[in-house]
Specification:
The chain is α+β, with helices and mostly antiparallel strands. It has a six-stranded antiparallel β-sheet, covered by helices on one side.
Length: 120
Amino acid sequence: MAASHHVSYTRLTNGDCFNRDVTSVFADKVTKVPCAKSHNGEVVGSFTADNGAWPGPVGMQAIVGQRCDQAARRYTTSRPAEVGIYFLYPGRRAWDNGSRLVVCELHNRDGSRRSGSVAA
């Protein structure tokens, strides 16, 4: 990928690097960038959450925590201490419209950007 471009977080795949507003887990659009460039997120996995009522942020943390942790361990065996495991998931409106995709990501705990892949 040569250039940056805006995409829905649902179009990200393992190894993609991107920038988003790290203060919101409901950021629908992200800016996909090459991992060599400055970025604040790197995809380590994704999965489709089970159907049911929208779990909200606390419920989603319970659903996602272990699955994203496992995805991060499969992705890289040596994660720097400053890098945390986070996730993007659908807001209530998107959930009610059938979206269930959860994207697991790694980014710096302080919200700063990094260059290069965590997996490298």
